Amino acid sequence: MLTEFIITSLIVIATPGTGALYTIATGLANGRAAAMVAAFGCTLGILPHMAAAMAGLAAVLATNETAFNILKFAGALYLIWMAISIWRDRSLLAPSGEAQRRGSLETIRHAILINLLNPKLSIFFLALLPQFVHPDDPGALPAMAGYGLAFMAMTFAVFALYGIFAAMTRDRVLSSARLTNLIRRVFAAGFLALGIRLALAGR
Fold it and tell me: Residue ranges of the domains in the chain?
């Protein structure tokens, strides 16, 4: 059962999404330490969804269309705002060390909001956890918490690897103004596409 959970979780986590994209962008812009902070922030953003699934609140999102849409459109608008900000912010991947570094708290705040405003995560946990822990079993809540924390640990590890790899290529990437402008626009387009995808997503 644990092996199945790990395989399922790794497939979901390794699939590039908003958190991975943000961590990679942070690693390219500000280096390895900042990428680790972004990975940590994205991991923290999972915690409310896990808690909601354990408390049964995720079921409300799954059945209440209004609540789901409010959170969904808030998340979509945030991603679209990030896309516009990245497109306009030429200092984000400026060459020759000209990039303005974001503080750790700002990086964590953005990372948490990216995951917090995605209602699909709560529904994912609502669908995932009962496959491995029956809600009526004694000790179900501690077991669900254990699985959830394991999912968070794997998320941090995978995102950290993404960020470290991006940071390793940072100097080579930032040496070319043309390449940095292209990558910045690709990231902006990526966030825009993910925002539109979230806005159009159903329960």
Answer: 2-9+19-72+91-175
